[in-house]
Design a protein that fits this description.
Largest sheet: 3 strands, antiparallel
Distance between the termini: 59 Å
Order of helices and strands: HHHHHHHHEEEHHHHHH
Helix content: 55-70%
CATH topology of the largest domain: hpI Integrase, Chain A
CATH superfamily of the largest domain: Intergrase catalytic core
Number of helices: 14
Number of domains: 2
Structural class: mainly alpha
CATH architecture of the largest domain: Orthogonal Bundle
Strand content: under 5%
CATH class of the largest domain: Mainly Alpha
Radius of gyration: 23 Å
Length: 297
């Protein structure tokens, strides 16, 4: 199925993130396994990469109780793969043209309330050692900038300017953006740097900003576990993750009057549609205020 060549194309030409590349590779392997398991495989890719077989795969995925969102992500991968094959002259017809994607159920992004985020500062949650200072700075920077998990673990010392109060973020497809940071976050940063030096860890411009207790670069599961640990202390929402802090950043900004286009730029979204989902959270807040304040509500 030319999966290896396609993966290289995603990495080096499309410059997709490693997370996206891995997801696409997994999805294609799952499709290939489905074709094999159902006796549909052929030497000619055009014979099995058909509308009928893709529809059968969609039905199979739905019977596995996968959400419409997950199925649509897998179909998005297949669409990209088909376009790649057409571009390289492997196939002529596009079997995805007639495919109708399952309808997504609209799900509002979960976020932490402002008062709950304040508890992370007001209560004695973080220890006054290297780990505690790093974790506090990690949580605060995620909330202060709304950056993605993959973005924060790749930050280097040179990316953060204390004097200019800003951080340079390398986002999806190597797109750079600048995010301001406030004095409160700068103060936490200073405490962290002090502890990092005491541990003998590098603070050179080229070294990673965040490191583990052993001085190694952070990895995704490490950050995820830290975020879950601290958010569990202040909120009872079902989902707790670094991405929830991204939702929290955007929702709080919007609730406090920030322009939607400005939030789009700060989040590194390619288009405004991705950012508009947060307006639904804001409208829910407006409805609550209306119900409490209007005499006929």
């Amino acid at each position: 199925m030319n999966i290896e060549l396609f993966v290289k194309y995603l990495k080096y030409e499309k410059r997709y993130s490693l997370h996206t590349v891995k997801s696409y590779e997994t999805d294609l392997i799952q499709f290939r396994n489905f074709i094999n398991d159902h006796g549909l495989m052929s030497d000619n890719i055009s014979d099995y990469l058909t509308y009928q077989n893709i529809r059968q795969w969609i039905i199979f995925l739905s019977q596995e109780n996968l959400s419409a969102r997950t199925v649509n992500r897998k179909l998005s991968c297949l669409k990209t793969f088909v376009k790649y094959l057409q571009k390289n002259g492997v196939i002529n017809d596009n079997p995805m043209v007639k495919i109708i994607s399952p309808k997504n159920n609209k799900r509002l992004p979960e976020f932490v309330q402002e008062g709950q985020m304040d508890k992370l500062d007001s209560e004695d949650i973080f220890k006054d050692d290297f780990s505690g200072c790093r974790d506090k700075f990690l949580i605060e920077l995620l909330y202060n900038t709304g950056m993605r998990l993959s973005e924060i673990i790749n930050l280097k010392h040179i990316d953060l300017s204390e004097s200019e109060m800003k951080v340079k973020i390398l986002g999806k497809r190597n797109k750079e953006r600048i995010s301001p940071i406030n004095q409160y976050t700068i103060n936490i940063y200073k405490d962290y740097i002090k502890k990092k030096k005491e541990m003998g860890f590098s603070v050179e411009f080229s070294s990673y900003l965040f490191v583990t207790d052993k001085g190694n670069k952070l990895y995704p599961k490490f950050v995820y576990n830290r975020v879950v640990k601290y958010l569990s202390m202040v909120t009872g929402i079902d989902k707790k993750s670094p991405h929830v802090l991204r939702h929290t950043f955007a929702t709080h900004m919007l609730n406090n009057g920030a322009d939607l286009n400005a939030i789009k730029e700060l989040l590194g979204h390619a288009n405004l549609a991705a950012t508009q989902v947060y307006t639904h959270n804001t409208f829910e807040k407006i409805k609550d205020v209306y119900k409490q304040a209007h005499p006929r509500a």
